[in-house]
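Feature request disguised as a bug report, sorry. It would help if multi-protein outputs had a clear separator. Right now it looks like this:
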Amino acid sequence: MLVELRRRLVEVLWSVGPLFGLICLLQITVVQAPAALFVQFLAGSMLVVLGLVLLFLGVDHGILPMGRFIGAEMPRKGSVALIIGVGFAMGFATTIAEPDVLVLARQIDKISKGEINGTAVLYTIGLGVALCTAIAMGRVVYGVSLRLLLTVLLGGAILLSLVAPPEFVPLAYDAGSVTTGVLTAPVVIAVAVGLSSVLAGRSAVSDGFGVLGLASIGPIIAVLVMGLMMK
């Protein structure tokens, strides 16, 4: 475990090092933030490194193996409804706990001064991801064309973008981008890969992936619909 911990620490430092270095360079050459704020940044950076190391260890040794096991076990129950229901629940539960989504919800609540409720946005995004994750699981089971689903869903998103209130359009597309984060991505991919690996005639590569692409369209549509309902 110590070897793995050191390996992960090196990977995280290589990943976040350029960002921290750039901010330090800007501090020296351009911005000259107060010393107290810069020290606060350094302390926060160390916490970020520690948190990412622990997060990646947890994902590798806990979330991914369990997700693949759940995906592989569901077909043995002989219920398509169960597979789709678990996909829905997984998509919703991971999304409302996703740090990026929580940040977006808090920011929209703060910036709009409560006119757009952050909690409502959070659960709307979660519902959108859940619905499209369930659709993606059904696609794996029935072998529906990914191109067809993407065409229909993206077409719907584009049409809604033309009629939704202007302030909801950028929010919707940001909602689509923040959902595929450190929690949602490993869980959803692991379940889909596990599911496709035990189904006859399915490929873990061509059928197990693409789930996140579908899932990320869900919150775009959901937030645009939310905007139309509030119009």
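(second protein starts here, but nothing in the output says so)
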Amino acid sequence: MGSRMARNLLKGGYEVIVHNRSPDKAADMKRFGAIVALSPEEVARQAEIVVLSLPNSETVATVVLGKRGLAEGLRKGSVVIDTSTIDPTVAIEIAGELKARGSYFLDSPVSGGPEGAKAGTLTIMVGGDALAYEKSKHVLQKMGKSIFYLGESGAGQKMKLANQSLVGVYFVAIAETYRLATGIGVKGEDLLRVISTSWGDSPVFRHFMKVVKSGNYEDGASIKLMVKDLSIVRGISEKEEIPMSLAKLSLAQFRKASDGGHADLDMSYINKILEG
């Protein structure tokens, strides 16, 4: 996701400085015109706006506040845009820490998958300082098509978790329905043709059908990320005493897939788990 968004910024005429904990991935971006930095701190010293795309809350906190992290190099007034999906509480804490140092943190999780990241059509949900949002909106517009400013810090993450709760349930429901349809003789191409014009349609359904048809589960939004997202949903629902039975059932299926050695595969692989 991060490399695709960075390429769109390069196409948009921005000077892009990249850092990745895996040096080969950062070096790959150099081919597209990016400048490679050796640490998050080095990125922050050169950039007024920093964009993060990271796997979890712990990593975001380390990259921003850890040794040689962004906070050690950010100038006053700089904006950090975090497109990761993390716990809203962590986003609020990081935003408060950076504000105390004179910079800003916008929790800006995205939806649309690798396809949306590549095409620059992501939906972006933003929480944080309104002036920081206005200052950096031009960057968001190079990465996404639908951008929503939702209010104070944490608001973007809360909205993304609502979205992920639906997405997780959708994937399992679609996989289960696919097993039913093909099991009683419905052709896959007919299923796609009819459902894509019916109430059962969704971007998740079309993505699932595309991946299952191709048989390529290697490139897409990974199972381990859905496990992480639904785990956050479960934790919040239990804390707030909000029943989320379907999200919990979906989490159990994705965990089964992850524990079975399929954590890095596309979420559509849940089809194979149900088949088994």
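Even a blank line would do. Unrelated, but nice: The longest strand covers residues 144-149.
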